[in-house]
Amino acid sequence: MDKMKLMVSRHSVRSYTDKKIPEDIVEKLRKKIESVNEESGLNFKLVTDEPVAFGGFLPKYGSFKNVKNYIICAGENVPDFDEQSGYYGEELVLYCQELGLNSCWVGLTVNKKKVKEEMKPGETLGCVIAIGYSSTQGVPHKNKDVAKVTSVPAPWPAWFKNGVKGAMLAPTAVNSQRFKISLSKDGKVIITAGRGPYAQVDLGIVKYQFMLGAGPDFPGFA
Ligand SMILES: Cc1cc2nc3c(=O)[nH]c(=O)nc-3n(C[C@H](O)[C@H](O)[C@H](O)COP(=O)(O)O)c2cc1C
Question: Fewer CB within 10 Å: N-end or C-end of the chain?
Answer without folding.
Answer: N
